[in-house]
Amino acid sequence: MRFNLKQKLKWKHFTFLMFMTVLLSFQNCADPLEINEEDTSSKYENYPFAYDTKIDSFAYMSCSGFDNSVFNNQAVFTFKTMAYNAGSGVSLNKEFIDSVGNMRMSQQEQILSEGKANRGAQLQSALRRRANLLQYYVSDTGGEGVEGIDYDNLLSPLDSENLIRPIIASKGQKMNYFSHLEGLQNRRLESYLYFNGSEALASDLRSRLDFGELIYTLNYVDADGDNPVVPMSPSDAPESEAYGVGLRMTFSKGHGLYFATGQVKAFTGKAEARVVQTINEVNLLKPGVDKTSADADWVCPSHLKFMIVKPEDNKDVFCGTRNNTALELTTGFYEDPNALPTGITQEEYNAVRAMLPIEYWHVDFAKQCVV
C-alpha cells in the first residue's frame, strides 16, 4: 500500500548580536564565601531552585503504523526538541547565582547536590495534562509510561560531576553541547518522543493537543526520587505548578504534495489536520496560562513544512532529484555542498539539518519533501 508521511519543523527566530567588549581585571579583595563546616545539610535548604533551560528547535512527524525496531530512532520520531543555537541550553538562573554570590564552586556543588530544591534534578520531556501535570500521555492505554518512548530523560542528572562543574563555571551562560565530558549518553541537549504505533494513537494525541488538554513539557524531575516522573515543584502541589516550560500547539491540514510536473495535489475533503500550525510557550508555574512575552510565540515559515515520501513512492514525486528522471532515483540524490537552496537562509538550513541529519534524510527544499 502506498502512503505518504508528513513532517512539520518548528524553529524560533534567532538573532545573533556581536558586542565589542572591554575586559577589565580586578584583584579579588575578599576570599570566596564559605558555609560554616559545622552547619548541617539543612543549611542547603535556604537556596532557590537553580536551573533555567531554553530550547529553540522543535519538530513533529505524523508518521504512524510502522515497527519502530525497523527504523533508526534518531531518524523517525514523533516529537524532537533541541537547544541548538547560542543562547539556548541549560544554565543556572539569576536568582540562584545572586543567592550564592562569591561562594566557592565546591560549596555550590554541595548546595545543588544536597539541597532539597535541586538534588537529583534532571531534564525530562513528556506530554502532560495541562490541568494536572502529574498525568502524562502514554502510548499503551492503561499501561505504565516507558522511558525513551512516552517520556525522555535528557543528559544526566544536572548534579552529576560531569555536568555540575561546567554549568557552575558558565555563570549563567546557556550550554547546549557537552563535547568534552565523559559518561554522557547524549552530549547534545535534545529529546525524542514516540507515539507512532498506529494512526488511531497519532490522531488521538493530535486531538488532545489541539484541544489544549495536553501540552509538551520540558520539566525537571528528581532522578534519585521514589517517582522519577513527578515534576519538581516549588510547592507540595506538582499537579498545578512545576519548574520548566511547556509548548501549547494547534494543528492544520498540510500544503499538499508537489509532483515532478510542478502540480500540487492539495489535501481536501476529510483530510486530517496533522501539521503543527502554532506553538505558544507556557510557564509550568502557571500551566493554564499562555505566556505573553515577545518570544513566547514560535514561528514556522510555510517553506519549512515537509512531506515525507517513502523511497518506493518517489517515482511520482522525484523528491531530492535535480532533473526529475528515473535514473536519478537509482544513482543517488543531489545536494550542492557549496550553495544554499534557493530562498533558504543559512540559519534555516542549519535548523532543518539539525532536525533531519544528512546521514538519514535527503531534503528537497524546492518540492518541500524529504525521502
Reconstruct the topology from this structure:
Blueprint: E1 5-11, E2 51-54, E3 57-61, E4 79-82, E5 89-92, H1 94-100, H2 105-114, E6 121-129, E7 132-136, E8 152-153, H3 161-169, E9 190-193, H4 199-211, E10 214-222, E11 244-252, E12 257-258, E13 264-265, E14 275-283, E15 305-308, H5 326-331, H6 346-355, E16 363-364, E17 369-370
Parallel strand pairs: 15-17
Antiparallel strand pairs: 1-3, 1-15, 2-5, 3-4, 4-9, 6-7, 6-8, 6-10, 10-11, 11-14, 12-13, 16-17
Helix pairs in contact: 2-3
Q: Any overview of this molecule?
A:
Residues 1-33 have low confidence and may be disordered. The chain starts with a strand and ends with a strand. The strands form 4 sheets. It has a 7-stranded mixed beta sheet with strand order 9-4-3-1-15-17-16, covered by helices on one side. The protein has one domain. The protein contains 6 helices and 17 strands. It is α+β, with helices and mostly antiparallel strands and 371 residues long. It has helices at residues 94-100, 105-114, 161-169, 199-211, 326-331, 346-355, and strands at 5-11, 51-54, 57-61, 79-82, 89-92, 121-129, 132-136, 152-153, 190-193, 214-222, 244-252, 257-258, 264-265, 275-283, 305-308, 363-364, 369-370. α2 (105-114) crosses α3 (161-169).
